[in-house]
Each structure stands twice: as structure tokens, then as C-alpha cells.
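Protein FAM133B, Bos mutus grunniens. C-alpha cells?
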Amino acid sequence: MGKRDNRVAYMNLIAMARSRGPIQSSGPMIQDYLNRPRPTWEELKEQLEKKKKGSKALAEFEEKMNENWKKELEKHREKLLSGSESSSKKRQDKRQGKRKKKKKSRSHKSSESSMSETESDNKDSLKKKKKSKDSTEKEKVRAKKKKSSEE
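C-alpha cells:
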């Protein structure tokens, strides 16, 4: 018996591609892009002028909107100016009233009223302490629940 033939046929890929013929392209080629019709210089100038001018309807609309906006701004300014004058007067009357009230309350404090105020303050502080204790206890319970759920 003879030796086995270990040779492998060599395939020249480039030669095979050429034998198939030209490739059918699906889209436009570079030559198509370069050979496209282009406008002349005068046509370009005309197009640019049209773009600069814009539409007349749009220009009219923008002018109307600007006028309306200016009117609204003027109305708003008038309101603010008239409102600020009256509100500043009201604020001054309120400030004077508050000052008088404070002076009266400070000058007419009696020992009995101060005693009642300290008692009410003590009650308020006790309530706050109770609330803070309750909140800390709730946080501890939540922490325990989280630990038990993680395990």
C-alpha cells in the first residue's frame, strides 16, 4: 500500500472573489455622492437670503407676543409697587402693635403668673422626656426586629 496523501488544496480567496464578478451594493457609492447635482453659487446666495428673512407670519407672531409680554410685565410691576407700599404700612402698624404688647407683658408680670408659668414649663418638659423615651424604645424594638430578620 502506498503513502497517504496529506496535501490540502490551497484556496486563493482573492481569485475566487474576482471570478464571481462585481459586488452588488445595497446603498449609494462614493461616486454617486461625488456626482450628485449641486446648486450654483447664485442659487446658494438666494437660499441663504430666504433663511435670513424667515417667514412673515412668524415675525408678526413674535412681535405680538413681545407686546403682550411687555404689557403683562407693566401690570405686574404696578401691582408690586402699589402692593409694596400698602404692605409696608401694614407691617409697620403690626410691628408697633407687637412692640407695645411685649412691653406690657414684661412690665406687668406678677409673682403668681410666673409661678403658673414655671409649673406649665415643668409639665411640658416632662411630656417631652416621655416622648423621647418612647421614641428610643421604639428604635430599640426596630433594631431587634431587623437583627432577627437578618439571621
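The chain has a mean pLDDT of 79.
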